[in-house]
Amino acid sequence: MLTELVDLPGGSFRMGSTSFYPEEAPIHTVTVRAFAVERHPVTNAQFAEFVAATGYVTVAEQPIDPALYPGADPGALQPGAMVFRPTPGPVDLRDWRQWWHWAPGANWRHPYGPASDLAGKADHPVVHVAYPDAAAYARWAGRRLPTEAEWEFAARGGATTTYPWGDEEKPGGQLMANTWQGAFPYRNDGARGWVGTSPVGTFPPNGFGLLDMIGNVWEWTATEFSAHHRLNQPPKPCCAPPGPADPTISQTLKGGSHLCAPEYCHRYRPAARSPQSQDSATTHIGFRCVADR
């Protein structure tokens, strides 16, 4: 069953931020047309229905073309994905390779490697979906991936504050999204008891009634990433059918994830944005779809 769509009227809003990371600037006015957005990210159960109906094979499950990775050890080019593993203790946060590891056999069915499964996680966001995987699901569903502007408009929920719920990260001490709790990357105390992804809807909705726009999983958008918002260039067509994953092209991710911590990744805000190559499949990236109205 597809996720319920929430109709949004569209309108103008102030996109971006100058208070956190340079790629979020400049703040500028953007107008989006009316559209509808899925109330929550696509879940494991929903993605499984898509795969069962189509026989689709995700990027993480496909053989790797050595020509796309010149100089790589051929023995290492096995189907798999990037998996987060906590470090034993404090580390230099400038070196992400200490907690991200290539895991042969990791994919949406086995998020932490061949020995893991989705038991008890049917209603968690699907992960290990690369950009073409998300786009393929959207086409099957008769929907599409959102542009960055559409995504940010939806995530703000009509608010102009730092977070959709206000300017305080934890108003009254209340945790509002699934983000890292503890000391990154070695101690995660859990977000309302959840370490890793949480069931969609565990945390409060935003002003538009949308769930998990902030935290839980990063979400793919149809907008190619740039080092900052480009005001003098029209965006590329958002909905052209994608070809095979291109590791040289990065799409814009939005929303932050369960791995975001203020000392390392304070990107669990509507304005935050991050680049990710189209072929990337990780334990903290998912997606949701939109539809035209």
Automatic annotation (TrEMBL):
Lineage: superkingdom: Bacteria
Entry's transmembrane regions: none
Gene3D superfamilies listed in its UniProt record: paralog of FGE (formylglycine-generating enzyme)
InterPro entries named in the record: CTDL_fold (IPR016187), Sulfatase_Mod_Factor_Kinase (IPR051043), SUMF_dom (IPR005532), SUMF_sf (IPR042095)
Domain Sulfatase-modifying factor enzyme-like: 2-290
One annotated GO molecular function: formylglycine-generating oxidase activity
Pfam families (alphabetical): FGE-sulfatase
UniProt xrefs under PANTHER family: FORMYLGLYCINE-GENERATING ENZYME, SULFATASE MODIFYING FACTOR 1, 2
Protein's name in the database: Sulfatase-modifying factor enzyme-like domain-containing protein
